[in-house]
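input
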Amino acid sequence: MQPSWRRIWKSIQLKPPFAAAEAALKQAEITLADHQELKQRKSAAYQPSQFERAQSQRETRSAEVDAATSKLSAAKVQAEAIIPAQLESAKASLKQAQLELERTRVLSFVDGTVEQLALNVGARATPAAMSPAMVIVPDRKASQSGRIVAGFSQVSRPRNI
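output
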């Protein structure tokens, strides 16, 4: 199966303007040939101004064909090189964004309630024992005793309340 960008390329509407430019050039060449024939036969129907106009029109149509050819070549380059590269870049960006999204989940090994949350929206959580991002108070089953174990820093000073 062809990549989707190749199918898109086939549907690009550049060929009809190119064909129209070629048809206009052929018509201008026929008109110029008719005027050249009238000039060579020294016909009374020959008019120099119409001959010059036909020459000018053929040159204009030739330039239009060249411009259409250039546009067609540029579109081919874009369809064959630039668009696939942009697609690969977008896929890589999507993969990176998905990876970063996966890293936004904070998981705990125990069920419990989060207390003392030290993070703000958009902040990065890093594992550090001295400055935890949050404190989790584990849930207890009814069969467990009501004992609470807490750790206190040795450098804290008692306050008078």
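quick obs: The CA atoms of residues 140 and 147 lie 10 Å apart.
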